[in-house]
Specification:
Two copies of one chain form a homodimer.
Chain A lengths: L17 H8 L13 H6 L5 E5 L4 E3 L7 E7 L2 E6 L5 E7 L4 E2 L12 E4 L3 E7 H10 L2 H24 L4 H13 L6 E3 L3 H8 L3 H13 L3 E5 L2 E4 L1 H13 L2
The structure holds a DNA duplex (30 and 30 nucleotides).
Amino acid sequence: MPPAQVIPLHAEPALFNPQTRICAECGVRKFALLGVVDLAELDRVHTHISSIKLSPGQSLYSAQAPGLAAFTLRSGIVRLERTSERGERRILRLAGASDLVGMEAMLGQTYAADAVACTDVEVCRLPRSLIEELARQQPELPLNLMKRWQSALDDADEWMTELCAGAARHRMLRLLLKLTEYAEGDRVWLPSRQEMSAMLDMTIETASRLVSQLKREGVLDTPDQRHAVIHNDALMAALRSDSLST
Amino acid sequence: MPPAQVIPLHAEPALFNPQTRICAECGVRKFALLGVVDLAELDRVHTHISSIKLSPGQSLYSAQAPGLAAFTLRSGIVRLERTSERGERRILRLAGASDLVGMEAMLGQTYAADAVACTDVEVCRLPRSLIEELARQQPELPLNLMKRWQSALDDADEWMTELCAGAARHRMLRLLLKLTEYAEGDRVWLPSRQEMSAMLDMTIETASRLVSQLKREGVLDTPDQRHAVIHNDALMAALRSDSLST
DNA sequence: CGCACAGTTGAGACTCATCAAACCACGTGG
DNA sequence: CCACGTGGTTTGATGAGTCTCAACTGTGCG
């Protein structure tokens, strides 16, 4: 018998409560935390998933707040940020479609960072109790969670090595490269200069100058304020020539 | 009946194989991953822990190598580092006594970074199969592992916000503060200028100049090349006045 | 239309990297 | 024992890269 998720939806409509339906149709489900859980099981569980939409600038959760749920990103980009001891905001990393954020909630801890929407965002809220209930029937779930922790750590490490070190121009080029990973088409989300400066530890002015310069060099175009088309070959060439000069 | 670990060692010596004995006497055991596992159980398991000693500069494991074991640090300091795309070495963070490194091995992944001893180091090697075997009898173990992943992530985030941003002098002061966390007495391990520059993304010369300056200001003394006495009040004062000027 | 705010651009100041030289601690071999 | 080389550290002089301050431009919105 085939697993539940490949049964055509009209076959047993009575099985699914409204939210489970949404899950069934979700484009990122198979890449997400609960991708291994079958829908029938999800339907049976008491605590429920809820969908949340956010506009740019809205907060998903805040550092120090009690963590009651983790969140799977269905679309859009979320930034994780912190304020340093001296009161400056620093963007730690980005999360995109199918990423899981706020995992610390699964441990009963407070959130470790602020999560803020960069674009329009759709997330699914996964309460702690839901994960715990599912984990009892699904021993793979904790393993999947651990893998996600490790990959968050990998992201943090990569961000650190590639986006935190070297000349400003080089960091900006690496950022553009990273942004292409979150593209949902040929256009890429282009952060505000403020966001760039918080990601790359530079001033708004320097970020602006670099973007302008790279536009002149044909590395990117900006059809509108918040989007860019990045020309990959020009970007790569810029990155390469930049490494040589060092 | 009291748990095994509080029974005086001479009571049932026959129970313990040689390595388990070492565990019983280990100073960091109760803070370490296997602190929750009782010794009798540890004794029964087939795969065994082994002790390893390293001198400064020796490698514990290398990035990309197949991860066969995680390691609990019993003493000393280990640095986790990576080389960036442009070929520069970057120190990501430090690990000290009772920390667990190389957790990615528990997921069957290759190591994500190089781990290198900064000081004389003693570690316990925990093979993957050992952890898996123990996890079967000890359901708390995976939870403990997850907590350690989260705290590694917290460390990475803190390193990022405090040690990767701001003026060189400020980053150096934050580093000194961080080093006090790893102190095993009143003396602190003082990294080589090379290591400092790889941690703080600055040149060796700048690191050297800053250390000299801070010595002149009475923030630290260096009884020998690799150790420092850090004067906490002077350090704090320096950090504060440094924040004000920004 | 005009206000608010993000982004751009310029000029000057300052930080930090670079290059170069000297210094020091150490171990080696004469 | 000392001369010597080696590798890490310190210090200086100079210039490139960024920050700061300031003015200006563009964009969206009441």
